[in-house]
Amino acid sequence: MTAKLENVRLEFAVRLNAALDLAGFPSGENGRQTALAKAMTALGHKVSQNGVRKWLIGESTPSIEKLPDLACIAQTTIDWLVTGVGISHKDNQLTNIVTMLQNLSVEQRKVIFEVGNAFALSTSPTTEKREMGEGQQVATSGKQIC
Predict the structure, then answer these.
(1) What residues contact residue 13 under an 8 Å CB cut-off, 6+ apart?
(2) Rounded-to-integer distance, Cα 88 and Cα 64, Å
(3) With a cut of 70, which residues of the chain have pLDDT below it?
(4) What is the pLDDT, as a whole number, of residue 123?
(5) Which three-class secondary structure state does DSSP give residue 73?
(6) What long-range pairs does 43-50 form, CB within 8 A, spacing at least 24?
(7) Structural domains of the chain, ranges and CATH numbers in brackets
(8) Using CA atoms, how far apart are residues 42 and 44, in angstroms rounded to an integer?
(9) Cα separation of 22 and 28, whole Å?
């Protein structure tokens, strides 16, 4: 194995572990590899704990097909995982807001919508007011937003 390829793998492992730290994954090697293997399996990927262990210690890197879900789980971007360029950790503020909105009643959503409309109208003269009808709801797919 060339030194350059080995270095690429090690740098990937350092970034992956750093992102998983920020995402709240267990810090012990065995706990981390188990949790990550389970998360990837839950998203439909066939990965073993040994394969994940190799990613975490820099012996190998995941296939390109796995990178989008791996970045999502680690709450980072593919670019940062692969190259170290870009955002290292995604802000979960939007995810938290969507989750809170999903838990509101229709009446509460209408109030939030009206407050948002009032704010938008007060800050932008070109914004049109829209009404929230009974059928309009916040998306509730349950899929994690990446």
Answers:
(1) 55, 56, 57, 58
(2) 19
(3) 1, 29, 87, 90-99, 123-146
(4) 67
(5) helix
(6) 43/69, 43/73, 45/69
(7) 3-83 (1.10.260), 91-146 (no CATH)
(8) 5
(9) 14
